[in-house]
Each structure stands twice: as structure tokens, then as C-alpha cells.
Amino acid sequence: MFAHSPIRKRLLNSRLYLVTDQELSGNRETVKTVEQALRGGVDMVQLREYSLNDSQLFEMALKVRKLTSKYKALFIVNNRPDIALASGADGVHLGQDDLPVPAARKILGKSKLIGVSTHDISQAKRAIKDWADYIGVGPVYPTQTKKNVVPPVTLDYVRQVNKARLPIPFFAIGGIKLHNVEEVLKAGARRIAVVTGIVGAHKVAKVAGEYKKILRKYPWV
Amino acid sequence: MFAHSPIRKRLLNSRLYLVTDQELSGNRETVKTVEQALRGGVDMVQLREYSLNDSQLFEMALKVRKLTSKYKALFIVNNRPDIALASGADGVHLGQDDLPVPAARKILGKSKLIGVSTHDISQAKRAIKDWADYIGVGPVYPTQTKKNVVPPVTLDYVRQVNKARLPIPFFAIGGIKLHNVEEVLKAGARRIAVVTGIVGAHKVAKVAGEYKKILRKYPWV
Question: Best residue in A50, A51, A54 to probe B by mutation, most B CBs within 10 Å?
């Protein structure tokens, strides 16, 4: 984590992180889903779409940038520092098989956020040494997300990360639904990322609001 | 085309452009193929690999950057301005469904090269208006490249582009082999890009040298 900056203060205040997936959103388009989720109170949006070409992804990123700015939410692009820069996003999210964090940092500079998916504590520590701004911790539960081939890390990893008192925020992710979110928070998470639980909901704004309500019962400071 | 610069002078002098494809290279690894092709005299290399994840692609880009520097050849990354920047490549090549040229230019700055695949004269003109540095003209003949779903543009488009006297260099591409390269040059091309014709060859350096020899019979100035 770099010195305090407005964007990093907003990151600290972010508790509910929406990750998009058109294919899990039924007939609703991702941009529509994002708008409804923002109305419901998500603090941060990651554009993660596997089925679009770069031209389509860029067009969508521009739209999501506008919406997130309107709702004062952070906007992160999955995998692609170039599309993050071109669309004016706040940062990028990297998996373990994506560009290494130092390479992405070189492109993005210090003013952008870099998040990293981690599946064990050594990956978490690596991310911190690489100056990542936040990490994902998961998948906590089995998920429907196709590209996710990592077996669930279970609540054990959440507890482990919580105990480690890492110097950057972590978001628990992976199969977190309204019915199990409280056990994740009880395991020590204070920030969560949600895909299907929100994008697959019938009433997106309402469901997002319900996650927020539960999160408020577990303040992070 | 921007004001003269060393990199753009080298582009003008580049006549034989190798585009990589591990899957068409038999058992030979792309890095090996690139090295042999450079020995044979290719002036420019584009890293275009569909089967690698970003981490692997980045590692390979670093290796190809070293080799191309050693042989004083230009190095272009397909599709990805971020990986081009992170690996110190000379530029990026964009297809019609990739990031728009102005978005890529914003990320790359004026000192990097941007090439664009074009399949008709209106795309060629669009690329020039967007300040692309060179264009691809093709596919001239049917190709084995899997991702290429565009029907052949035939020698007619090569002749059309040649007649149009565009203010930037163009590379004819698509199914160009030793047995048909001369008809492409006779149609007005002075620069060619080759995939299978080189990466699929038994003796890569020798075949690259043969392309060069034929190209020398058709000077560009």
C-alpha cells in the first residue's frame, strides 16, 4: 500500500465489491446489472467479462466508468491494465496467471489500484511485497464461475488472513450468498466480493442493499 | 505517421515481418523459431500467441524483446498495449475487434508503433486517420490461422492499396508462401508478413533468407 491518497481511502471504505459476469446475469445486460447494483449500494465494481472482444470490452468499460463515477464507486478492470488506463478506471485486478504485479505497476503508476487474487497465505504475502493495494481471498465456497478452477480455500484461509493482520484490505470472494455471508464476516472478513449472489439476483438493487445491511452489523473500524 | 523518428525509419526499412504462432510451429518453441528467423533476416517480429495466459505471454515477450534487440529487429505485440509496454516492445498490432487505435495511442504514446489489420480500403483509410504507423493488408490468400475468419481479400486489395499511395507502409499478409510471394510483390506490395510460411518451415533461417532474397529483387525505393 502506498501513502494515503484519496483513492486508497475510498478503497478502505469499500465493503461490497461487485464482480460482473454477463453469462451469470440471465438476460440482463452487464451495464444494467451494474447500474442496479450501484443503486443498491455496492462500493466497488470489477468488470470481468470473458466473452467479449477487446473492442466490446473497452466500450463497456467506458459505460461502467461513467456509472461508477456517478455513484462515487471505485471501478476496477479485470486482467487488463491497458483497458483500465484507456477507460479511466481506478485500477486493475490480477489473477495468479495474469501479468505480474510489478509489470502492471510499471504501466499503471502509483495512482492506480492493483488487486490480486490469492488462494493461500504465501500468495497473499507475495502480493503485499509486490505493493498490491488489496487482495482477494478465495474462493471461500464452490462457485459457478467457469474460469475458476481453484478448489475452495474454505473459511480456514479467511481466518488465517484475518489473523495475519495484513497491512492491506482483503475481500473474501467465491460463492458468498446472503445465506452464508455472516459466517464469512464472523471468520474475520470485513469486505466481500460477490458475483452470482448479485448479478444472478432477480432484484439486483434490493439484494445488494441486503448485503450492505448485513455488512453494517460488522464495522471494519 | 508521426514525424520521423529512429523507430519509424526502421519501420520503413522493414520488409519481412514474422508473425508467430506456436500451434503452427510443430514441436519447435516460438522463442526458438524467432531466433532462427532473425538469423535468417526477418526485420520485424510480432508475438501473436493465442494459447498462453498473460503471465506466460509476458515471459515470452521479454525473451523475444531480448532476441529482437540483439538482431536489431522491431518487436511488436499483438493486441496488448499493456504487454507491449511492460516488455519494452516497439509497438502493438491491433485487429478490427481490438482496442481502438486512439485508445491504444493514449496508453502507448507517440514513441511506439501501432499497426492495424485492414481488410478493405475504408479500414485502411480509417487507420491512417487514427494515426496508425502501418497497416496489414490481407488475408491475401486462404490461411491456416485459426482465428482468421475474414475471407481472402485477394490480390485486388493489394493492388488497390498500392494504387492509393497511402502515406504509411503496408504489409501484405495471409497465406504468402515462397511459391506465391512474387505475385504479391508484382501486385505492388513491398513489405510482407508471414506466419506459416516461416514458422511451419523445417529450416526456418534458410526459408526466411529465401523470402529476403526475393524481396531484394523488388526494392521499395
Answer: A54
* Beta carbons of A55 and B98 less than 8 Å apart: yes
pLDDT in tens, B26-56: 889 999 999 999 999 999 999 999 999 999 9
Residue with C-alpha cell 459505460? A63
The answer to whether residues A33 and A63 touch, using CB atoms and an 8 Å cutoff, is no
Cα separation, A201 vs B100, whole angstroms: 33
Which is nearest to A16 in space by CA: A152, A180, A154, A176? A176
Q: pLDDT value at position A149?
A: 76
pLDDT at position A70: 98
Asked if the Cβ–Cβ distance from A100 to B56 is below 8 Å, we say no
- The rounded mean pLDDT for chain B is 95
Query: What radius of gyration, in Å, describes the C-alpha atoms of chain A?
Result: 16
- Beta strand residue intervals within A110-186, DSSP E: 113-118, 134-137, 170-173
Domains and CATH numbers, chain A: 6-216 (3.20.20.70)
- Contact of A51 with chain B, judged by CB distance below 8 Å, is answered with no
pLDDT tier for residue A147 given thresholds of 50, 70 and 90: low
